[in-house]
Amino acid sequence: MKALALFSGGLDSALAIKIVKDQGIEVIALNFVSHFFGGKNEKAENMAKQLGVQLEYVNFSSVHTEILKSPVHGRGKNMNPCIDCHALMFKTAGDLMEKFGASFIISGEVLGQRPMSQNYQALEKVKALSPGLENLIVRPLSAKLLPESEPEKLGWIDRSKLLDIQGRSRKTQMELMEKFGIVDYPTPGGGCLLTDPAYSKRLRILEEDGLLEDENSNLFHLLKIGRFFRFEKGKYLIVGREQDDNLKIDEFKTYGSLFIRGKEVPGPHMVGFGDLSQDEIEFSLNLFSRYSKVKGNSEITLLLNGNDKTIPAVDLEKLNEKIKQYQITM
Fold first, then answer.
1. How many alpha carbons fall within 13 Å on the CB side of residue 124?
2. Among 81, 162, 254, 280, who pairs with 71 as Cys (CB 3.0-4.6 Å)?
């Protein structure tokens, strides 16, 4: 008997796998990859190794973006379409059952842990959005509080060995993991950027500008980095705050219409997107000077799209007014 598991690498999904695996069922862990969560990572791989399960990365970025654009059950507090997202994971896992020879699907969802997306009605909605799989979904951590699934009815899995956890506290899960000798797991918490207010605010701007499309996924990733400036519809500037930001921005230096970095004086790396006007380019150059070691107080030579560009000292008062006008902050 085999089961596929929705697997983030975190506490709940790991415990769900452990409980099912201990019944002699082979579990294959599916880590779903979108533009906003998941992907090859040490956390998931370490946990899969501790659990002794096969880990598979499942990239569903494109179809997930389509769900994000118009989720049937709407979004949460931010840009997160949790109910539709979970249903998409189950559907995608269902499409992989034959490939892996699996008979049912498990997840680490806990009844009442997230008031909006993991209440009883929400869990039932997820099942309804997963036609053909409704009775093949097992939620081991709260199974005793939920209707009996087909794998339980058929004896594929022993319901008496499943759990009845509910609520937001993870104390029970932590105690069980300690009991099982699994101590190296990440601090419980969300891993989806769509639940983050600051990131969601940036992404909403792309949506308002008509750019919430998979073909613009590079922008989705750029929005995760540093400072964000919007000049007007479809015209943006992303500015590194620190060295890690600069390295990430370098990966997109050929994507935008503008790439700025220091030459002799260190400063932020910057990517501009869209057909920027001369005034907007000048603002970007002055901004580099302002955030560089010269603080805008003297002439500086930098690299603009790979070419030397020397700019004079900056009118900081005028620049600060423009920063207030363009920068997107919380």
1. 7
2. 81
Q: Are 154 and 15 in the same domain?
A: yes
d(CA 204, CA 212): 8
Average pLDDT over residues 272-288: 97
Domain range for 299: 196-326
Q: Could you tell me if 63 and 87 are in contact, meaning their C-beta atoms sit under 8 angstroms apart?
A: no
* DSSP element (H, E) containing 279: helix 278-291
DSSP states along 243-275: HHHHHHHHTTTTTSSEEEEESSS----EEEES-
**Does 149 lie in the same domain as 10?**
yes
- CATH classification of the domain holding 35: 3.40.50.620
- CA dihedral (212, 200, 130, 43) in degrees, to 10, reads 110
pLDDT at 43: 86
Record the pTM.
0.89
The tokens 């869209």 sit on which residue?
Answer: 274
Q: CB of 173 within 8 A of CB of 165?
A: yes
Q: Where are the beta strands (DSSP E) in the chain?
A: 2-6, 26-33, 54-59, 104-106, 137-138, 227-232, 235-239, 258-262, 270-273, 300-304, 307-311
Compute the distance between CA of residue 4 and CA of residue 2 in angstroms, rounded to an integer. Answer: 7
- Element housing 180 (H / E): none
Residue owning tokens 């219409």: 257
User: What pLDDT does residue 302 have?
Assistant: 97
Q: How many domains does the chain divide into?
A: 2
SS (H, E, C) 37-89: CCCCCHHHHHHHHHHCCEEEEEECHHHHHHHHHCCCCCCCCCCCCHHHHHHHH
The backbone torsions φ and ψ at residue 23, rounded to the nearest 5 degrees and listed phi first, read -95, 10
